[in-house]
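Sample 1 of the test manifest.
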Amino acid sequence: MELIVLGSGASVPHPRRAASAYWLETGDGSLLLDAGADAAHRMAQEELDWAGLDAIWISHFHLDHIGGLAPYLFGTKYAPQTQNRRKALKIFGPEGLRKLFEAFDEANDYGLLKQPFPVEIKEVAPRAEFELLPGLRAATFSTPHTSESLAVRLLGKGGASLVYTSDTGYAEALASFARGVNLLVMECSFRRDKPVQSHLELADAMELARRAEPRRVVLTHLYPEWDAIDLAAEAKKLWPGETIEARDGLRLKNSDANG
Ligand SMILES: [Zn+2]
Ligand SMILES: [Zn+2]
């Protein structure tokens, strides 16, 4: 599988970091992890097949993670590229996901789910196990961020695994959930003295890495306070493993159990 970072930022507008969105290309289809406001534009900018996207994972309902969801569906409803599409788009997320679409459509007659192709909404619970794409297994974990927020662990056919924490506070159980994963895509909102418990600062993130022992870590959901700092070097002081600073446009191969 290949991870393409579309948005490594958070809710604060930033010149080089769009809000949360990640494209995952698996051997068996494409998956969008969260849909920040610029997701549709960023998919096009990275020359990804946004019209053929197979599935979307929504981690929670903060707007820096779903702000681009309705605009994407507004786009696919009318775009020439999707008028002949017949395969379904599956959208997975926490309980309340369906209500969100209903609320959009109540606000104005968008008809977001009336598309040229079927749209399947699948609400999943914490500790659920399901198939996200054919051959791509998924498991969820309730994170201490919002009442609905979920981390997801993915396992591809070839053995490649990935955990996307999305927004989370510190929880030891999250390290167990991410244990031994190939690629741990983890939020690291703040450097130190975090203003809220519902996010991670660097020491939290590196403690989770130490406990989870992933092959590699990507730190993301970066607030502007990280701009002038060598994040990877700071991380190295706290955990000796490989830490990569997410940036928009970063592409990472995570090809098999050893990759
Ligand atoms: Zn966020
Ligand atoms: Zn959030």
